[in-house]
Amino acid sequence: MAKQSKIFVLDTNVMLHDHHCLSHFQEHDIVIPIVVLEELDEFKKGHDQLNYNSRAFVRELEHLTKKGLFKNGISMGKGRGKLFVETSDKAHLEVMHNTFVNDIPDHRILAATQSVVDKNKGRYVALITKDVNLRMKAKALGLNAEDYKTDKVFNEETLGRRVVELNSVSQTQIDTFYDKGSIAPKDLKVKAEANQAFILRSGTGTALGVYDAGQDLIKRVDKVRCSGIEARNSEQTFALNALMDPNIKLVALTGIAGTGKTLLALAAALAQDQNYDQILLARPVIPLQNQEIGFLPGDIDAKIEPYMLPLYDNLSFIKNRAKGSRDAAKVEELQKSGKLQITPLAYIRGRSISDAYFIIDEAQNLTPHEVKTIITRAGENTKIVLTGDVQQIDSPYLDMRSNGVSYLADKMYGQSMFAHINLVKGERSELAELAGKLL
Q1: Predicted local distance difference test score (pLDDT) of residue 1
Q2: Nearest-angstrom CA–CA distance, 112 and 172
């Protein structure tokens, strides 16, 4: 006997997160509460990713409605379920009014879900939402509720992937590694993925290496100095190596606050300014805890400046460290000439970014779709660096396993033009590292 298909009721934030969401439920039926269509209407104007997703989803919905009306459900294609729109009846709305103080869209979505449950006795019905609080409310009412899992990372190792430490390497192998500058993985009896970082240790010596998949060799990595900044630990050394390697076009730097992600990316970009026409710096415009600071006067540069202060702080740090040297003068020269630009991410759609070193800071606040949008803008001779701390996510609908950086690190791992370095040791200050660990 064939298993009965399920019914999934979708919250607005699912469509705003992924406008292709209708295609990810296989043979199961989908229900959209009519209040969701009202909420989508409020997001249709604007240039942010949410606005784009709202418009794209409504267009897809309109395409499906050409097949008929919602009353009996619309087929979403061969081997897939039907799509329905649910208008909550008065009785279910009354229950929600008596249960909750406020009449808000979330409670109308709960009423629609309860209505679907009552109409489909014996079938599994679940509310799909990225809103944790709404899931809790649904469960309190005895309703099934789930997160949208399509682009979640299920490999836990992705989130904390560290440098591989080999502690049983002979001193002879270490010496050979230093002399030749490389060693075969088979000689160390290890399996390696492209750009995997290794620390080789014997009783008396240590060496750093990165696996070159093209030559099937672990190559020696030495410390380098970029724009007055020098690596303070092995992870930072590997990070600078990846940032300076022209063959690696995409780099993800993760780690807790104070590990030097943004500083290293900026230092490496400034050290390679002759190789690129532009150095672009960007970060999502998300205030701490979503506390808006109101309307700001001035042009677009003046409006985004408060959100870009962390980037300016790092530039100032580099200038101060290199004070009086050519590196310090170069930073000011690049800013004045416009070669070094700090830009908002909102206007990247549709652009083709060629011959640029592009750094996206705080990328853990981007969705997987937004990260894909950014990376697909890359033209010839463009390098993209994403930095982020997956433990400090300000976006209300993302978590450690569903944000863009985690998704990128999981999907791109093992590709020869991609490197992921997870920075572990805090270097901002002893206080910052202690707070990062304990608080």
Answers
A1: 46
A2: 70
Beta bridge partners of 83: 30, 74
112-160 pLDDT, tens digit per residue, is: 999 999 999 999 999 999 999 999 999 999 999 999 988 888 766 666 6
pLDDT at 234: 93
Which pair of structure tokens corresponds to residue 125? 């019905």
**Is 19:136 a contact under the CB 8 Å cutoff?**
no
Q: CA-CA distances (angstroms) from residue 251 to 33, 40, 106?
A: 41, 34, 39
Cα 144 from Cα 138, distance rounded (Å): 7
Cα–Cα distance between 158 and 403 in angstroms, integer? 12
Cα separations in angstroms, 155 against 146, 401, 406: 19, 9, 10
Of residues 293 and 220, the one with the higher pLDDT is 220
Owner of token pair 């020269």: 333
The set of residues, in sequence order, having a beta carbon less than 8 Å from that of 124 and lying 6+ positions away, is 4, 6, 7, 144
Average pLDDT of the segment spanning 371-379: 89
In sequence order, what DSSP letters do the residues of 230-248 get, joined into one string?
Answer: E--SHHHHHHHHHHH-TT-
Distance CA 254, CA 363 (A): 9
CA distance 101 to 188: 65
Measured CA to CA in angstroms, residue 182 lies from 198, 248, 257 at distances of 12, 19, 33
Q: What is the pTM of this model?
A: 0.80
Which residues are CB-contacts of 354 (< 8 A; sequence separation ≥ 6)? 277, 379, 380, 381, 382
User: Do the beta carbons of residue 227 and residue 267 sit within 8 Å?
Assistant: yes
Bridge partners, residue 254, by sequence = 388, 422
